[in-house]
Design a protein that fits this description.
377 residues, alpha/beta, eight-stranded mixed sheet, six-stranded mixed sheet, 16 strands, 17% helix, disordered N terminus, disordered C terminus
């Protein structure tokens, strides 16, 4: 008798008969920094090495349905940063994949959903905005614009105490824009903004910026793209996003350049896909959106008539592994050898009764042409 897991899709799926909600699109705030919106990691974390770096990735941590679980996840990541043996090997920062707060991006939600939860996390926290961070509560008693609170927390012009943080020690981050690029010694991390609608919307201005960032990215570093709305998914709540697939594929085709890996949130589970291209390149697409919000999104069953995998946009994409029955987070390590560079990912699940469990591991490696990588190239 086959297990239930064997009846699940092994490919991404498309959810049929979905209404068009692009009317939910919200105008973007003005950039807080100068074009091309770069942030140099060594300006924030001076001790980051030119040979090894490690960091956490997590999405959809907001919500108060199960605050104890949310706090457990944050505390577990903090403990990995504070390893007594070889502390330099521990993660040095957290990259948030969006939906910091639910269900709307209200300033009053940041204290208990972010500042308190991550009060013990020792490193800096960077973020891209999710759809819930960007939405506006129609029942709010005061007027505010999309991403007002998010920009005060993450896109400030200088690091300072946040007025609505209840006097916690964490100060604002100085990301230069809602979409932006982190320049590190070993990786270029491009953070995109996909707005409020269920399947995401990218403006023409951001598309042109993204194309320029792909073209200018150092080929001897890991090229990482982060976008909240997952291009590929097999879950029952969202399924794959055809607009995000079209956006990425157009940029890849225009530039002739592809990232080494794409990370997303939005879907409340863990999924790792591999897409094989005709030029021989393979890209991993990883979802890590089970960061604390209490509702999880199971992977669809093959007999569920609401879904199909039989559309061209999903060809040559395979679901390599998934975890849809609990919450967790990613730990990423990037290492440089003499003539190669590798990215190692570990996904850990968290269970209040069972503790931490390693669910999935993956490695991406590539040869590099230069023996010395310029940290700011």
């Amino acid at each position: 008798m086959k297990s239930l897991k064997n009846l699940k899709y092994k490919t991404p799926v498309f959810k049929k008969d979905q209404p068009d909600d692009t009317y939910k699109f919200k105008p973007l705030p003005a950039p807080s920094g100068k074009y091309p919106y770069h942030l140099v990691l060594k300006d924030i974390v001076p001790q980051v090495s030119d040979q090894h770096m490690a960091f956490h990735m997590i999405g959809d941590t907001g919500g108060v349905g199960n605050p104890a679980l949310q706090q457990l996840i944050a505390n577990t990541m903090a403990s990995q940063c504070n390893k007594e043996s070889k502390p330099d090997d521990g993660p040095q920062f957290l990259y948030h994949l969006g939906d910091v707060v639910y269900h709307y991006g209200e300033a009053e939600q940041y204290d208990n959903q972010f500042f308190q939860s991550f009060g013990n996390y020792p490193g800096p926290i960077f973020a891209i905005a999710g759809n819930h961070d960007s939405d506006i509560n129609p029942l709010s008693t005061h007027s505010y614009k999309s991403l007002d609170a998010f920009t005060k927390v993450f896109c400030d012009t200088t690091s300072r105490p946040v007025a609505f943080s209840n006097q916690t020690k964490r100060k604002s981050m100085v990301q230069p824009n809602i979409y932006w690029t982190m320049k590190t010694p070993l990786a270029t991390i491009i953070g995109l903004y996909s707005n409020v609608p269920k399947f995401g919307v990218i403006t023409e201005e951001q598309k042109n910026w993204f194309i320029a960032e792909l073209r200018s990215a150092n080929p001897d570093k890991m090229l990482i793209v982060c976008i909240h709305h997952a291009p590929y998914s097999a879950d029952i709540n969202h399924g794959s996003s055809l607009p995000m697939i079209a956006f990425l594929e157009e940029a890849f085709e225009t530039t002739g350049k592809k990232p080494d890996i794409v990370f997303s949130g939005h879907v409340h589970n863990y999924q790792r896909f591999c897409k094989n291209y005709t030029d021989g390149k393979s890209i991993s697409f990883v979802i890590a959106g089970a960061g604390g919000f209490d509702e999880l999104h199971p992977v669809a069953s093959t007999d569920d008539v609401r879904f199909t995998a039989d559309i061209p946009q999903l060809d040559d994409v395979k679901l390599m592994n998934y975890y849809d029955t609990g919450h967790g987070f990613l730990q990423i390590g990037i290492n440089k050898e003499e003539d190669s560079i590798s990215l190692n990912g570990n996904y850990f699940s968290i269970n209040p009764n069972e503790g931490i469990t390693l669910v999935d591991s993956f490695t991406i490696s590539k040869s590099i042409r230069q023996k010395n990588i310029e940290a700011y190239a």
